[in-house]
Write a structure and sequence with these properties.
The structure holds two protein chains of two kinds.
Chain A (H helix, E strand, L loop, with lengths): L5 H6 L14 H11 L5 H10 L2 H4 L4 H9 L7 E3 L6 E6 L2 E9 L1 H6 L1 H18 L3 E11 L5 H21 L3 E8 L8 E11 L14 E6 L9 H5 L20 H16 L5 E5 L3 H12 L3 E5 L12 H6 L5 E6 L4 H10 L4 E8 L4 E5 L2 E6 L1 H5 L13 H8 L10 H13 L7 H4 L10 E3 L6 E4 L7 E7 L2 H6 L1 H18 L3 E10 L6 H21 L3 E7 L3 E2 L2 E2 L3 E10 L16 E5 L10 H5 L12 H14 L5 E4 L4 H13 L3 E3 L4 H6 L6 E5 L4 H11 L3 E7 L3 E4 L2 E4 H16 L1
Chain B lengths: L3 E6 L6 H10 L3 E6 L10 E4 L19 H10 L5 E4 L1 H8 L6 E3 L7 E9 L15 E8 L3 E3 L2 H9 L3 E5 L11 E5 L5 E4 L18 H13 L1
Keywords (chain A): ATP-binding, Cytoplasm, Ligase, Magnesium, Metal-binding, Nucleotide-binding, Purine biosynthesis
Pfam families (chain A): AIRS, AIRS_C, FGAR-AT_linker
InterPro entries (chain A): PRibForGlyAmidine_synth_PurL (IPR010074), PurL_linker (IPR041609), PurM-like_C_dom (IPR010918), PurM-like_C_sf (IPR036676), PurM-like_N (IPR016188), PurM-like_N_sf (IPR036921)
Chain lengths: 741, 225
């Protein structure tokens, strides 16, 4: 095929172009023509199509997401905010932390291993790009029903992919979630979070400054994998009638990424880059246009210089390829020799592919012929913005009026059977089958990891400074009330951080939804964003960035609205963290926080085929006081564990099983007390000598506390129901190996 | 003068900084050694750390054995120089023929990370002399290819010469022959161990501090010289 140059495009304005196949709408195509004053070349069309995709341009979400900026609290801790590759937060002692979650949902359904693996790879490069050393990952996952045949294809592949890639990078996996619900059957969610650390002065940005500075592409060679990953794959609903999208999935090489990490960190240390951007979704199209758009000048790229794995690739394919493990840096000419020497040391291929120019255009040539001539901002930042129709779905009010009933056990043997049933259910069961496939020890700084309430990493071995990270979502509450659901998810994530002994500092998010073209889904989304923005404001926490994944929908079945909220916390002395497991006998057990009987959205209701009728209303003022209670009371807590999914029953069992120390509790209205998931509660164990202190704390922070029992023995005794630790352990741990081998 | 222990970094090494931390915590000085150089920098012992050297897309350790640093290490090891290979390092030692046998995929074909009980079987090596005979220890195990395999003749030789230095206890994590977790060469200066002692050196970040004894053992031996 002849090269479609700018000259050809001008001379042949009526050539038919496959814009619809590339995911562009009629009006979007018309708009590109208006911007350029002519039809785009096929290379330009390729660039606009990937960069204006839902995945890259946030065109349906932008109008809502701006609330995160508008409502934000002024925070001195926020060093880099929304808009860069990842937000950066000051944690003191001149350390800065960057963290972010991204989705890799669609690729992981098509090709579970590679989809999940490259999801880890992508988020790690985002963190690296900020100038940070990646120090931990977490993976919130959602699947269809645990015993569905396709879940047995998807789950083991995704878990192996996350482990295969993350383990090979040397990043401890410190937490995450695994939740099953039938709405995820055709749309499993693979969200990947990465945390990185750097010194304040090491922060890097994605920008191209200084005429004559060089554009260097380094890392893996470019191949034909992942072409159209963001546009064709992540920005459309799945449709069984259409051809397979497997070729659009990227293929990962974790070894290449590991050496790229070490190479980049050495380059950063020597202060050799002006700006840097990773190549992820939309590949070179994204990196060149974003660097140029954020910079002060233009950019000239010689596309034929890009090292190729497959020499038959066309310029359009080179621009759209999402081959992994690649980075693009802006380097001053006098530093290029040193830069190249470091790349050579790590056997990383590096090529100068262009330079920063004095103009305001992004020019791309192929063997001397001009094939792209665009204002970079129109590609990278000024994409289309949609104000999609919003309509509250009828189900919300219908459910709110409905009455639901679930069995409530009362007799001791009924209570025992109910507890064993709950803890063996896939959503509550022990997840070691999954987490033991992840390395949690590498780097030697992991203080807490799954199944603890939050992952906790030591940052400084001398001062004992550390950070905690937690991710949470309760999609059933979000389905019943997306506004409250988002607030509750943020509150829970903060509570998890404080339960481990750290102070919540900043928020990130990954918003997973169905099709934005469905007004009901768009309502769920709008309400979620409003809830999250309001909650962050009320809790006084900055939102540092986030990710939106739409089109998690097969046909007319959308996933439950799933806003995964990540919170970062700081702990001054990691040695003082509070673990979840009851450490010894003869401690007093308390539930901290107000209790209301409420089974709506609970695991117990779900086990009986009910979703409930109304989500709890988040009491953020109380949640704030609870966080302070937990931080203040930390010295007297021997253990602490959040009450959430599965209610107090699950919390008690997990606290007992961790160190195999039993407990005896007395509960009124036993079934509701065990299975209600009333938010804002934590189970703590204290020495009886600390009774006065906990009572004083309760008064100081106006938080109700309930003494429910004591620790010790080899059983969990709930009123007259006696369940041995052996029985609990068997029920809790057998489920996953039985399901997945 | 403090005692210098080299820690080798191959491309893809992951636990090199952890091994260095363990050396320092045991009282030694950790000296970074890079795969591309054959300079041992006057160290008195070497640790080959865990990881995925060169990605381990071929047999684990099969490429690392050809690194320039390995030439120097093999030569020195054959003259009694102390070498500890952990996980990937153990695989490299087998590929380099400093130790017999091979590490193959775990019997259940999954990567496995767990706190593993071990029984120390031989306390006469440079790396295990600080343990009590038969001592039970708890240290992390984390690998995808940790199943130790060899022919019957080699197995008999290893057992009869007391060269099995540690065995898995209570749980068979990977299908290793005779539950072997670690072995030594005939002289006892080269030890390969699948579990990770460098991740059990402080109670804050590991399941125990049992791993530290591997590193203090070699230092005591060196002090005694």
């Amino acid at each position: 095929m002849a090269l479609d140059t700018v000259t050809t495009a001008t001379q042949n304005p009526d050539t038919k172009q496959p814009f619809a196949e590339l995911g562009l709408k009629d009006d979007e195509y018309a708009r590109i023509k208006t911007i350029l004053g002519r039809r785009p070349t096929s290379s330009e069309l390729a660039m606009y199509s990937v960069m204006w995709s839902e995945h890259c341009s946030y065109k349906s979400s932008k109008v809502h997401l701006k609330q995160f900026g508008e409502k934000a609290v002024k925070s001195d801790a926020l060093l880099v905010g929304i808009g860069e590759n990842a937000g950066v937060v000051d944690i003191g002692q001149n350390y800065a932390i960057t963290f972010k979650i991204e989705s890799h949902n669609h690729p992981s359904f098509i090709e579970p291993y590679q989809g999940a693996a490259t999801g880890v790879g992508g988020i790690v490069r985002d963190i690296l790009t900020m100038g940070a050393r990646p120090i931990a990952v977490m993976d919130p996952l959602r699947f269809g029903l645990a015993d569905a045949p396709d879940t047995r294809r998807v789950l083991p592949g995704i878990v192996a992919g996350i482990g295969g890639y993350g383990n090979c990078l040397g990043l401890p996996n410190i937490g995450g979630e695994i939740v099953f619900d039938e709405t995820y059957a055709g749309n499993p969610l693979v969200n990947a979070l990465c945390v990185g650390v750097m010194k304040h002065e090491d922060i890097k940005l994605a920008t191209a400054h200084g005429t004559g500075n060089l554009v260097v592409l380094f890392g893996a060679k470019t191949g034909g994998d992942g072409i159209g990953g963001v546009s064709v794959l992540a920005s459309e609903t799945f449709n069984a009638a259409k051809p397979t999208k497997r070729p659009s999935v990227q293929v990962g090489d974790p070894f290449a990424e590991k050496v790229l990490i070490e190479c980049c960190l050495e380059i950063f240390k020597a202060d050799l880059v002006i700006g840097i951007q990773d190549l992820g979704g939309a590949g070179l199209s994204c990196a060149t246009s974003e660097l140029a758009s954020a910079g002060s000048g233009g950019m000239q790229i010689n596309l034929e210089k890009v090292p190729l794995r497959d020499p038959s690739l066309s310029p359009e394919e080179i621009l759209m390829s999402e081959s992994q493990e690649r980075m693009c840096a802006i380097v001053a000419p006098e530093k290029i020799k040193h830069f190249m020497a470091i790349c050579k040391k790590w056997d990383v291929t590096a090529t100068v592919i262009g330079e920063v120019t004095s103009g305001d255009r992004l020019h791309i040539t192929f063997n001397g012929e001009l094939i792209v001539d665009v204002p970079p901002r129109t590609v990278a930042h000024d994409g289309p913005v949609y104000n999609r129709p919003i309509k509250k779905p009828a189900y919300v009010d219908e459910l709110a009026k409905s009455i639901f009933e679930v069995p409530l056990p009362t007799a001791p043997d009924e209570v025992k059977a109910a507890v064993l049933k709950l803890i063996a259910s896939p959503n509550i069961a022990d997840k070691s089958w999954v987490t033991s496939q992840y390395d949690k020890y590498v780097q030697g700084n992991t203080v807490l990891a799954q199944p603890e309430d939050s992952g906790l990493i030591r940052i400084d071995e001398e001062t004992h400074l550390g950070v905690a990270v937690s991710t949470d979502a309760n999609a059933r509450w979000s389905y019943l009330d997306p506004y409250e659901g988002a607030k509750l998810a943020l509150a829970e994530s903060c509570r998890n951080i404080a339960t481990s002994g750290a102070k919540p500092l900043a928020v990130t998010n990954c918003l997973n939804f169905g099709s934005p073209e469905d007004p009901g889904v768009m309502w769920q989304f709008a309400e979620t964003v409003r809830g999250l923005a309001d909650a962050a404001l009320e809790l006084g926490l900055p939102i540092t960035g986030g990710n939106v994944s739409f089109y998690n929908q097969t046909g007319s079945v959308a996933i439950l609205p799933t806003p995964v909220i990540g919170v970062l916390g700081v702990i001054q002395d990691v040695r003082k963290r509070t673990p979840m497991g009851i450490p010894e006998a003869d401690l007093d057990l308390y539930v901290i926080g107000k209790y209301n009987s409420n089974l709506s959205g609970s695991e117990w209701a779900y086990l009986h085929g009910e979703i409930g009728n109304a989500a709890p209303v988040a009491d953020l003022d109380m949640e704030k006081r609870l966080v302070n209670f937990l931080l203040d009371g930390q010295p007297i807590f021997e253990s602490a564990h959040d009450v959430s999914n599965g209610g107090l029953a699950a919390t008690l069992v997990e606290a007992v099983l961790k160190n195999q120390v039993g407990a005896r509790v007395d509960l009124n209205d036993v079934a509701n007390a065990l299975f209600s998931e009333t938010p804002g509660r934590v189970l703590v164990a204290i020495k009886s000598s600390a009774t006065n202190e906990i009572v004083n704390l309760a008064g100081k922070y106006q938080i109700p506390i309930y003494k429910i029992g004591t620790t010790g023995g080899s059983d969990l005794e709930i009123n007259e129901a006696v369940i041995s630790i052996a029985e609990l352990s068997k029920a809790h741990t057998e489920t996953f190996p039985k399901l997945f081998g | 003068m403090s005692f210098r222990v080299g820690v080798v970094t191959f491309p893809g090494s992951l636990d090199d900084r952890d091994a260095a931390r363990a050396v320092e915590m045991a009282g030694g000085t950790a000296v970074p050694l890079f795969h591309a150089s054959d300079d041992l920098k006057e160290v008195q012992a070497v640790v080959l750390p865990g990881g995925f050297s060169y990605g381990d897309y071929l047999r684990c350790g099969a490429i690392a054995r050809f690194a320039p640093i390995m030439n120097s290490i093999v030569t020195a090891a054959n003259h009694g120089f102390p070498v500890l290979g952990i996980c990937n390092g153990f695989q490299v030692l087998c590929e380099s023929h400093l130790l017999p046998g091979a590490l193959t995929r775990n019997s259940n074909l999954h990567f496995l990370c767990r706190d593993q009980k071990l029984k120390i079987e031989n306390t006469n090596t440079i790396w295990t002399n600080g343990f009590k005979p038969g001592q039970e220890i708890l240290i992390p195990l984390k690998n995808g290819e940790g199943s130790f395999q060899c022919d019957d003749e080699t197995l008999n030789m290893l057992e009869s010469q007391g060269r099995v230095i540690a065995r898995y206890l209570d749980f068979d994590p990977n299908g290793s022959r005779n539950l072997i977790a670690g072995i030594s060469n005939e002289r006892g200066n080269v030890v390969g161990l699948m579990p990770h002692p460098e991740h059990a050196i402080e109670s804050l970040t590991g399941p125990s501090t049992d791993g530290l004894t591997f590193f203090t053992s070699v230092l005591h031996q060196l002090v005694g010289r």
